[in-house]
Please model this.
Amino acid sequence: MNPGCIINGNVDIFIADSLETNFDPIIINGNADFTIEEGGNLIINGNLQISGNAEFEIEDDAALTINGDLNVTGSGELDLSGDLTINGDVNVTGNGEVCGSGAANVSGTISGEGWCLGVSTLPVELVHFDAMVQQGNNYISLEWTTATEVDNDRFIVERSTNGLVFELVNRVDGAGNSRSESHYTFEDGPLYPGTYYYRLTQVDYDGDEERFDVVVASIEDNGNGEEPCDIEVYPNPCVPSCRAVLDCSRSMFRTYVIDGYGSEISQLIPVSKFNR
Model:
């Protein structure tokens, strides 16, 4: 366990740059004043307690991240004008107050009447989202991990072959509410050789969604698969109209028409001709 740090008495402390500390807990007590100045950034990898008559101020364009719990007791005060992220619970007791014009992101629960900030609860804290090609076959493994989850109903996994148009490939149940890491996996396939884009979306119980960054994986053609498709579009530029000729022997394919903004205009339905 990391040793704690106690700041007591009539002292003034100012953070004007970036600082990360592993002290756990940090206790600011007595008549101490602690200020993160404009442009400053403090990361506490542990719990923070503000007690006695201590005051903690986060100025405009300053940030405090607490990777633990925030406890405000006695007549302690936290005045927020900048950004506050709490990856844990908040407990405000006695005459303690957490107020100001800023808004906080909180991954845990908030208790106590002294909390008067606007709050945005982070539904899911995503640690990573990866896509990896399985060796020896045409499957792609998707893996992702969350550090915390709040009211998380499910994840939606979507796939794209061009990074613009995505289609649903799976739904995965979420952990609901969790303060520990949750691990998820999904195998997609079999797939043709090519590049595939995957998009992960988290959905709350109330239907709100949070979309994460796209990941990419490519399956190489080992020479045993089907021939690639060729498409010819003319005239080019396509004004006022044009014709598309698709030469493709594959049994499975889908063709989209996309505008310059990445929006799908239509799908092209292939017509097969058979010798009788």
Notes: The radius of gyration is 27 Å. The chain has a mean pLDDT of 85. The chain has three domains: 5-121, 125-219, 230-268. The longest strand covers residues 140-160.
